[in-house]
Amino acid sequence: MSDVNRFEELVLPQLDAAHNLARWLTRNPDDAEDVVQEACVRALKYIGALHGNDARAWFLTIVRHAFYDWCRRNRPAEIARDDGTAIEMAIDDAAIDPEQAALRGAESRLLANAVAELPLVYREVLILRELEELSYKEIARIADIPVGTVMSRLARARSLLQRSPLMYVISAKWRADEALEESKKEAERLLSEQAAAQRRAEAAAASMSDD
DSSP for 52-84? Predict the structure, then answer.
């Protein structure tokens, strides 16, 4: 099988995953397209190095490398070591007005914004695990880090995500929705009890009339 045929058979089916990872890393669809195009060029060039059927992890590794090369040229500051203190310092109950945040879009958009604010080293492992559903070993191979580091970064990513001000907005919305749902259920229960009481009263009245 020629290199082009192998590329088409093994790599092209992974383009959706590649675009997804690149979009989350670059946070810009146009930049993501540039990264994926570069990754495709590299994948075709080195397709002979792909052994077995693990094309997905192999290609996502190339996408990640292409992104970091792109990032060094375009956003070198983003690669600087970041332990997440920027997000922790941003945690302020008054930092984001819930009503203003709600205007940004649906809850899914708020969640996407919260994920996008994560430091790069945590964002990439979270996306690979939660969205691409890769194993710890696959993520370790893609990110070129030990499995233990993958697990610790995932734990840190989830912790930072939970502490994000945007997640406070989502949680508040969920609590409000739950309260509204409980109110509806309580109203339905009361109406049901009133209807049952009225039926009993009518039945008793009818029984007295028969007597």
Answer: TT-HHHHHHHHHHHHHHHHHHHH-GGGGS---S
Q: Which of 107, 143, 104 is nearest to 123 (CA)?
A: 143
CA of 12: how far to CAs of 2, 28, 50, 142, in Å? 15, 21, 14, 18
- Top pLDDT among 168 and 38 is at 38
Report how far residue 142's alpha carbon sits from residue 156's, in angstroms, rounded to the nearest whole number: 19
* Helix, strand, coil shares, percent, the chain, to 5: 80, 0, 20
pLDDT for the residue numbered 201: 80
State whether the Cα torsion 82-83-84-85 is positive or negative. Answer: negative
Confidence band for 69, pLDDT divided at 50, 70 and 90: very high
Contact 71, 82 (CB under 8 A): no
Residues 88, 73, 20, 127, Cα dihedral to 10°:
-30
Quote the tokens at residue 98: 């819930």
Q: Rounded to an integer, what distance in angstroms lies between the CA atom of residue 21 and that of residue 31?
A: 12
Per-residue CA distances from 108 to 105, 158, 163 (Å): 8, 16, 17
Domains and CATH numbers, the chain: 1-80 (1.10.1740.10)
